[in-house]
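ok, trying the design again with the full structure, not the truncated one.
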């Protein structure tokens, strides 16, 4: 294994370990902060609803109900938040060891390459021994943010040739595109939706108009017929 190959192997293992650490820490943050935020929002709108009648609406009540359901779904994961934190800390320690191994690799020293290979094998064993938990919903988006913003990972991006597509999850990009398309259709600045609906509904309206006109043409019209019978009494 050459020096460049061992560096790339260390960088790839560093990415896997650190991403797993950030995924668990992101799950811990969600379980720690989201239920508290849900309670504060629900309580705040409940108190404000006593003073402002505009807040006593069915749409707002439905929104608060959905937020409450999210809190109920997160309740079982909230009981595991300490495990998420402990696993994230263990993986973070392993990632630091990998960073030290990468820094100790010398291009001119073959012994350092062999030592890095041995250390990498040991660290991979430590990584495999860590028991992972299933992540919380949407924690992968938050984990990508924590991975590339909270750490100096330039050397990892350089070794693995990571660009912005790798830093932004594909599911997040698809979600943003769908939301933007829905917002444009809802705003309808060019009246595209109105014109499309008019295009589809115009033939039907024309058919009904034609049927109505034909029914009016078939209906007989009763007009007063003048009496043409001669009045013989007037001539006498």
């Amino acid at each position: 294994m050459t020096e460049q190959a061992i560096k790339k192997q260390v960088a790839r293992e560093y990415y896997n370990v650190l991403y797993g650490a950030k995924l668990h820490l992101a799950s811990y943050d969600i379980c720690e902060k989201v239920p508290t935020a849900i309670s504060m929002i629900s309580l705040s709108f409940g108190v404000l609803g006593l003073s402002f009648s505009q807040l006593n609406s069915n749409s707002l009540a439905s929104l608060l109900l959905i937020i409450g359901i999210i809190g109920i779904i997160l309740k079982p994961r909230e009981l595991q938040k300490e495990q998420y934190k402990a696993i994230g800390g263990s993986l973070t320690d392993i990632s630091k060891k990998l960073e030290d191994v990468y820094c100790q690799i010398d291009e001119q020293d073959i012994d350092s390459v062999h030592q890095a290979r041995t250390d990498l094998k040991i660290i991979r064993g430590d990584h495999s021994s860590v028991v992972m938990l299933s992540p919380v919903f949407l924690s992968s988006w938050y984990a990508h943010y924590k991975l590339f913003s909270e750490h100096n990972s330039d050397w990892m991006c350089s070794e693995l040739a990571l660009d912005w597509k790798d830093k932004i999850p594909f599911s997040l990009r698809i979600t943003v595109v769908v939301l933007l398309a829905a917002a444009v259709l809802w705003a309808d600045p060019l009246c595209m939706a109105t014109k499309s609906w008019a295009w589809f509904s115009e033939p039907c309206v024309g058919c009904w108009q034609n049927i109505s006109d034909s029914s009016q043409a078939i209906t007989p019209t009763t007009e007063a017929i003048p009496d043409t019978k001669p009045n013989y009494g007037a001539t006498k």
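Keeping the full-length input from now on. Confidence is low (pLDDT under 50) at residues 204-208.
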